[in-house]
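Quick one before lunch.
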Amino acid sequence: MIFFTKIINLSLSALLLLSLSTLSYAQESITITNAWIADAPPNSTMYAGYLTIKNNNNNAIKLLTVTSPQFQNIEIHKSQIINNIAKMIKQHGLFIEANSKAQFSPGGLHLMMLVPKNTLQLDNKINLVLQFQNNITVSVIAKVQKRLSK
Ligand SMILES: [Cu+2]
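Model of the copper (II) ion complex:
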């Protein structure tokens, strides 16, 4: 019985290796830069986060979710002006075309970070986990910074 289990295990891992090597996407082919979170008054239940995601693949990728151990929930929002009123529209995932980037910035795409476990302080480093399609996970550290006044 042990013998059979071993054979099954071996073939399973061989299969796994095979499928990994044939994947056309890789974690390294997604680069994340300029990750930061805008400082907010004490006891805020909502923070805005920004980053730039570069897709170096020759195929489009889709960001599915963003999570952080320090927040209860994170949504992907896009600010848009509709009839002269600024609105935030929740995005259900985000496509990033081949060899291009998605730039989150104030007034546009942002991470709506809800219910922090603690009030964030300037220079705090917050861990973000980005889950993409095809089982690609990328972690990044976002620093809490003052919002630049325009
Ligand atoms: Cu928002």
